[in-house]
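Backbone-to-sequence.
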């Protein structure tokens, strides 16, 4: 039995949250809408309809390319990618082939591993980032007792950015951490909600195996399509590694194909043979002129990116001296990080105390304004004097607890403190204990 090394590359599709679709004026917010109510001749692919590119979608793709350290093309163009499937009304998809908006770049992240106590750093190279239109959505249903497939074209034409990595990943854990980091960056840029349950971020690993120590790429690869969670991506990759290892151990080569993840079976299943680029018969989109990006335009977009997660982590550590665990939680989303800093800027509470309060109490940042939170913390920290008459009343009402304490039962003192706290919820526990001990002699 041979030892194999997985070779994994990723294709990630992210729906951009522009107001309108990629090539027409239909609303791009399609989730939950009545089927086929957000369509027009352009996104239905009707004869004579002409596409007009969405400028905002192109700009956001440039910002993502810059955020990942890529090179932005001086000139980029759209191409027709031909294939025949019911969710593609034109018989081709407007995508990008040889002149994508961005090439190159890399993403560095940390991988937790049982082999390494503190984990390890991993860098994955980015091959390309390109812009295209999304397809319609198939819905399998039963109508009049017959099983049918229906097509909803509301999603057809929504701006879709595709990020393609080099095959630099070697296990499911690395793939999961890469995807989580990319998801975080996309949300920091505010270009997509990247909500995988709604399909606005879809994960497609390409997996193959080579003998340990071998160089170069294996003679095949298997793509698993449209995975919608980090957990399923991990399960699918591990399943494929085991499946392909078994085939190779039998002296065979796995079929180059596209597979899908079946959640019910917890397995990948065959969909179709894997196409090569030549199978799609790409050629330049004749109805859309090439796009040119001036250096000043790119510089202005770079200025809009703002502070990305890794930069924010370093600054929080330097400026606020927070614990690493707290920094990781506070910077998980841009919204939470901004909320924390708004609280800090009010200036009445130490940063670590604010961090503890926000994290431990799971503050709903959408419901509680920073000023209100700070006021609540200050109020909770106010010293409330323990009235002597309240202490006397509690002792007179609980003679057994008093006698138990005087008999040496320390637990009785905690019971008495609880009785006082019921009447004085904001009272300081230590002060109540001291007042009780004095009153008890």
């Amino acid at each position: 039995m041979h030892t194999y090394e997985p070779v994994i590359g990723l294709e990630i599709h992210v729906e951009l949250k522009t107001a309108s679709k990629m090539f027409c004026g239909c609303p791009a917010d399609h989730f939950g809408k009545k089927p086929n109510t957000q369509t027009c001749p352009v996104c239905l692919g009707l004869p004579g309809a002409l596409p007009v590119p969405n400028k905002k979608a192109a700009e956001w793709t440039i910002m993502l390319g810059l955020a990942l350290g890529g090179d932005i093309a001086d000139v980029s163009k759209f191409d027709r990618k031909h294939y025949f499937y019911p969710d593609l009304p034109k018989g081709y998809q407007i995508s990008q082939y040889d002149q994508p908006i961005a090439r190159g770049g890399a993403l560095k992240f940390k991988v937790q591993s049982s082999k390494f106590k503190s984990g390890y750093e991993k860098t994955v190279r980015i091959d390309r980032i390109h812009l295209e239109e999304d397809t319609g959505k198939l819905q399998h249903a039963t109508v009049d007792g017959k099983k049918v497939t229906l097509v909803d074209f509301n999603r057809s034409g929504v701006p879709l950015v595709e990020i393609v990595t080099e095959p630099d990943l070697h296990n499911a854990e690395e793939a999961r951490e890469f995807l989580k980091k990319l998801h975080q960056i996309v949300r920091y840029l505010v270009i997509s909600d990247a909500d995988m349950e709604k399909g606005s971020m879809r994960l497609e690993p390409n997996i193959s195996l080579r003998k340990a120590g071998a160089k170069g790429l294996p003679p095949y690869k298997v793509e698993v399509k449209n995975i919608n969670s980090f957990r399923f991506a991990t399960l699918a990759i591990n399943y494929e590694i085991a499946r392909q290892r078994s085939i190779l151990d039998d002296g065979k080569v796995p079929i180059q194909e596209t597979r899908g993840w079946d959640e019910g079976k917890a397995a990948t299943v065959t969909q179709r043979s894997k196409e090569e680029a030549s199978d799609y018969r790409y050629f330049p989109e004749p109805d859309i002129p090439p796009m040119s990006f001036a250096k000043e335009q790119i510089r202005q977009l770079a200025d809009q990116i703002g502070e990305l997660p890794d930069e924010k982590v370093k600054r929080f550590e330097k400026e606020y001296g927070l614990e690493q665990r707290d920094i990781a939680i506070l910077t998980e989303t841009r919204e939470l990080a901004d909320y924390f800093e708004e609280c800090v800027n009010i200036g009445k509470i130490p940063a670590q105390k604010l961090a503890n309060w926000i994290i431990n109490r799971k503050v709903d940042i959408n419901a509680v304004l920073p000023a209100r939170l700070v006021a609540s913390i200050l109020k909770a920290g106010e010293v409330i004097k323990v009235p002597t008459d309240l202490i006397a009343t509690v002792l007179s009402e609980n003679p057994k607890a008093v006698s138990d304490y005087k008999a040496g039962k320390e637990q009785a003192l905690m019971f008495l403190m609880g009785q006082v706290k019921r009447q004085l919820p904001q009272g300081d526990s230590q002060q109540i204990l001291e007042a009780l001990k004095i009153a008890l002699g």
